[in-house]
Structure formats: structure tokens, C-alpha cells
């Protein structure tokens, strides 16, 4: 009933949003009418994915301190967004990240590469989310994998195709409120087991024995996942690489960046980032309680087994909810997990379809002009169908594989390809079109290549990974190499090419607009 209630409410919102989603600004940017606190909740909703709610709580339960570092990384990442990206992006852009890049550079090559990078990040991230959705929904409510993935995909397309950014935003807001309510309630129940004493709680965590199902370990000790072991000599470097990808990748994620175009001005964009940072901060602190709490309350025998035959930590939050709050609370947390998945894939589809329609179709193919009124929105809706269909197909085909590396790839591409060109466009006068294209190409290519030859994709044991063989690159996370390569590609591309005096002459104009909002896109009436 809770699943159906959530779907019914969001479909009603989509129905009313569809009446307002006429015209490009209304469809792509919700008419720039979203308030700061609303956008803060929506940004938080976009960011707090199933990987955060289910994956991080599981990582903390199984790996303790190392799992908690995911929470720290996701939170600190928003400082980068707040300090460097949010205001210039809102002031200098219109619908996509490429609007900022193309402000003083040659539009066609820059927009084409930025669109490719956006589609890559969004599609890979969405496939991982949908495979996770199929598995989780099967465990939670018993629907088989294939119909679950198709159902999520169809609902996602209804939100995006008919309701546009306005419907997608309100789905995110509802999901964020539900998620925070569930996280608070679950944390409160966990603390009740320790008589609301933090000292008693963390003492239990330092002697966690998973309800007596294994020997007690101190989960507050670093190195349980990323420490140097005989099997993995690169554990510490992998941790640093992961942290770099999380902290810098967030500022380049397309579905996060497009959120700043839904507010009326840069001041509201800053307010929304402050709201988002506060909400995200509280959420990740709460993951401490139900993640560590699960290790002291649940037995390993209560967890389902992953494909590797080991306990699957991804389900600790729903199972903990059932143990502490009964079937009703389990149903609520399951509905929250479902809403989380649905909202994130809708946001990803929205950013991918917007980038293709606005950057590639309108500005690269048709030189910035619509042949007929409303053509850009029609192309975006068709693109959403294609992206959705491809994602559903790939999610079903790749269902038996561990595709968690795709999430790392999305962050790595965002940090290695998107972030360098965003920063150089705003802060480096000499930066030119060749530098932007080189930065995007090198960042994108190096991330993909390093992932393909890493232990995430290659394993000497047949059937354990996509490719059978010894990994060529030793780290699972490519960021420590691919991020510097992305910056280096942008720098060398600029310095080794002819100076672009037109682009340099527009630098002062861009700086004034980025810092003050003078000439920025305004809100429109529906």
C-alpha cells in the first residue's frame, strides 16, 4: 500500500506539472521557479541515492570506519560545489553544464564533447542504479527482477516525459523528506537499544560481534576494507583514489549541476546548496547510527547472501527496520528505498535528455536555432525514451554481473573530464577551445580505460568479473590518475595551441556575470 501511495502521489504531481511544462525553460528548468529550500531538498534527494542509503549503511555495518569514510566523502564533496561551482554555473548557464563552457569558447566542439561526457556519466550511473533497483525490489516486495526494472523504467519515463524538471524536482523533494524521516526514526530506535547513551553505543561498536554470529571486532579501527593486506597491497592508494573521486566528482555530476538552473538567481542557488549541505550532512551522520547499529543488533545469518556467497550488506537498513520496528516500519523503509531509486533515475534521465536536446541537437546540429517551436522539448522527450529503453535493456542483460564499478566510473568521469574544464573556464583567462576539448577527451578516455583494466572489470578467476585475466591497473578507483590527467590534458591543450583572443576578450565579461549574475537567465512565468 505504501508503494502504491507514493506512486499515486507522484503521478498526481506529474499530471499537474505536465500542464505547466510548456516551453523550453518550463520543461528543462521548471521555469526557474524553485525556491532555495525546495531546491536544497531536491539536490539532497538527487544526491542521496540508493547507494547512499542502502550501500553506505551496509558498508559501515560490514567495514566500520572505512565504510563511514564514504559518508565523510559525500558530505565534504558539497563544499566543492558550494565554493567553486554553484554560483558561476547558475549565472553563466541556461540549461546544462555546456552552457557555461560555451560562453566564451567555440560552441560546437565543446558542446559535443560535454554532451558525450554527460550521456556517459548519466547512462552508466543509471544502469548501476537500475540493476540495484531490480535486486532490491525483488527482495523487498517479491517482484521478479525483469518486471521490477521495467516498472521502474516506465515510471521514470512518465515523470520525465510528461512532467519535465518540475515533476522530477517534486519527486526528489518528497523522496528526500521520506528518507530523512525514515533515517531519523531508524537512528532513534537504534539509540534506544543503548539507552540513548553515545558512550554505550560506541563501546558496543568497538566490540561488535553481529549478535554473537562472529568473533567480536573493533569497527572503529581503520583498514578493514582499504587497509594493506596480502591480497591487496594497494589498499591505501585505493582509498585515496576513491576519496578524490567522491570529493571532486560531485561538482561535475550532470544531474546535480542542472539543479542550479531551476532557481531564479545565484543567491537562491547558494541558499539551496547550504540547505542541501545541511540535509546531506545530517543524513550521513545518521548513517553512523543505523550502519554501526546493525553490526551490534543483527546476526550475519539474517542477511541475504550476495553472488560471492558472503552476507549482502546492502540490505541491513530494511532488515534492521523490521527487527526494530516491525512489519509496518519495514514496509515504510522499503517504500523509502523504492522512492530513492525512482527519484535518482528520473533525475539522471532528465539531465541526459536535456544535454542531448539542448547541447547536441539544437546547438551542434542546428547552430542554436529551433526549426519549429517546441522542437527542443520534443527531442528531449524522445531522447528520454531512448535513454530509458537502453538503460532497461542493459540493466536486464548485465543483471548477473557486479556493476558497482559503474558508480565509481561516473564519479571518476565527472571529476576527471567535467570539473577541470568548468574550473578553467571560470578562472583561467588563457583557457581555450582546444584545452576544453582535450580536457574532456583525456578525462573521459583515461577514466574508462583505467576502469576497464582495473580489478573492477578484470579478475583471473573466470566468472568473477567481466574480463578474465590479471588486472593491468591495480586500483579499483581510477581518480588518483585520471583526475590529474584530465587537468593536464586541459592545460597542455591550451598551452600548445594558438591563443584564442576572442575567448580571452570575453573572460572579463564571463567573470562579471559569474560573480554578480548581471545578464543571467531570469525566472519565467509558466
Short description:
By secondary structure, the chain is mainly α.
Explain this structure.
The chain has 526 residues and is an all-alpha fold. The chain is built from 19 helices and two strands. The radius of gyration is 23 Å and the shape is globular.
Q: Which secondary-structure class do the elements indicate?
A: mainly alpha
Secondary-structure element string: HHHHHHHHHHHHHHHHEEHHH
Strand content: under 5%
The count of DSSP E runs of length 2 or more, i.e. the number of strands, is 2
Question: What's the overall average pLDDT, rounded?
Answer: 83
Strand order of the largest sheet: 1-2
Helix run count: 19
Give helix % range. Answer: over 70%
SSE inventory with pairings:
Elements: H1 2-20, H2 24-29, H3 36-47, H4 50-63, H5 65-92, H6 97-101, H7 107-141, H8 145-192, H9 198-205, H10 235-249, H11 254-257, H12 266-297, H13 316-365, H14 375-397, H15 405-427, H16 433-452, E1 458-459, E2 467-468, H17 479-495, H18 501-505, H19 507-516
Parallel strand pairs: 1-2
Helix pairs in contact: 1-8, 1-13, 3-8, 3-12, 4-5, 4-12, 4-13, 5-10, 5-12, 5-19, 7-8, 7-13, 7-14, 7-15, 7-16, 8-12, 8-13, 8-14, 9-12, 10-15, 10-17, 13-14, 15-16, 15-17, 16-17
Amino acid at each position: 500500500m505504501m508503494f502504491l501511495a507514493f506512486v499515486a502521489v507522484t503521478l498526481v504531481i506529474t499530471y499537474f506539472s505536465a500542464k505547466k511544462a510548456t516551453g523550453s525553460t518550463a520543461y528543462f528548468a521548471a521555469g526557474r521557479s524553485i525556491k532555495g529550500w525546495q531546491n536544497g531538498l531536491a539536490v539532497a534527494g538527487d544526491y542521496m541515492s540508493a547507494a547512499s542509503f542502502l550501500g553506505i549503511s551496509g558498508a559501515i555495518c560490514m567495514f566500520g570506519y572505512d565504510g563511514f569514510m564514504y559518508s565523510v566523502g559525500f558530505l565534504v564533496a558539497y563544499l566543492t560545489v558550494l565554493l567553486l561551482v554553484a554560483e558561476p554555473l547558475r549565472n553563466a548557464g541556461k540549461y546544462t553544464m555546456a552552457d557555461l563552457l560555451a560562453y566564451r569558447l567555440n560552441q560546437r566542439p565543446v558542446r559535443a564533447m560535454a554532451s558525450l561526457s554527460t550521456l556517459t556519466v548519466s547512462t552508466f550511473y543509471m544502469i548501476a542504479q537500475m540493476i540495484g533497483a531490480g535486486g532490491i525490489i525483488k527482495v523487498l516486495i517479491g517482484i521478479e527482477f525483469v518486471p521490477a526494472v521495467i516498472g521502474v523504467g516506465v515510471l521514470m519515463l512518465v515523470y520525465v516525459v510528461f512532467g519535465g524538471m518540475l515533476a522530477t524536482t517534486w519527486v526528489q523533494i518528497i523522496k528526500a523528506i521520506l528518507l530523512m524521516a525514515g533515517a531519523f526514526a531508524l537512528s532513534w530506535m537504534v539509540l534506544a537499544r543503548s539507552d540513548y547513551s553515545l558512550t554505550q553505543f560506541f563501546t558496543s561498536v568497538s566490540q561488535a560481534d553481529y549478535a554473537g554470529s562472529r568473533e567480536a571486532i573493533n569497527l572503529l579501527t581503520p583498514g578493514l576494507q582499504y587497509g594493506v593486506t596480502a591480497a591487496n597491497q594497494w589498499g591505501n592508494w585505493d582509498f585515496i583514489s576513491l576519496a578524490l573521486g567522491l570529493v571532486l566528482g560531485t561538482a561535475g555530476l550532470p544531474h546535480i549541476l542542472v539543479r542550479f538552473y531551476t532557481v531564479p538567481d545565484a543567491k537562491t542557488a547558494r541558499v539551496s546548496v547550504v540547505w542541501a549541505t545541511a540535509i546531506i550532512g545530517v543524513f550521513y551522520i545518521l548513517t553512523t547510527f543505523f550502519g554501526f547499529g546493525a553490526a551490534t543488533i543483527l546476526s550475519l545469518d539474517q542477511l541475504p547472501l550476495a553472488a560471492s556467497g558472503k552476507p549482502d550488506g546492502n540490505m541491513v537498513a530494511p532488515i534492521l527496520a523490521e527487527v526494530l520496528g516491525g512489519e509496518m516500519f519495514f514496509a515504510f523503509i522499503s517504500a523509502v528505498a523504492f522512492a530513492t531509486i525512482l527519484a535518482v533515475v528520473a533525475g539522471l534521465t532528465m539531465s541526459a535528455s536535456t544535454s542531448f536536446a539542448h547541447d547536441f541537437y539544437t546547438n551542434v546540429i542546428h547552430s542554436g536555432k529551433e526549426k519549429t517551436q517546441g522542437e527542443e522539448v520534443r527531442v528531449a522527450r524522445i531522447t528520454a525514451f531512448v535513454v530509458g529503453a537502453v538503460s532497461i535493456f542493459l540493466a536486464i542483460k548485465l543483471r548477473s554481473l557486479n556493476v558497482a564499478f559503474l558508480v565509481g566510473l561516473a564519479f571518476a568521469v565527472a571529476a576527471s573530464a567535467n570539473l577541470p574544464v568548468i574550473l578553467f573556464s571560470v578562472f583561467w583567462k588563457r583557457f581555450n577551445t582546444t584545452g576544453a576539448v582535450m580536457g574532456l577527451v583525456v578525462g573521459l578516455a583515461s577514466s574508462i580505460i583505467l576502469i576497464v583494466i582495473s580489478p573492477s572489470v578484470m579478475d583471473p578467476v573466470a566468472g568473477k568479473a567481466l574480463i578474465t585475466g590479471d588486472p593491468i591497473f591495480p586500483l579499483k578507483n581510477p581518480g588518483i590518475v585520471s583526475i590529474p590527467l584530465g587537468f593536464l590534458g586541459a592545460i597542455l591543450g591550451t598551452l600548445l595551441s594558438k591563443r584564442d583572443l576572442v575567448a580571452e576578450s570575453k573572460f572579463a565579461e564571463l567573470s562579471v556575470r559569474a560573480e554578480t549574475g548581471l545578464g543571467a537567465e531570469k525566472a519565467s512565468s509558466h
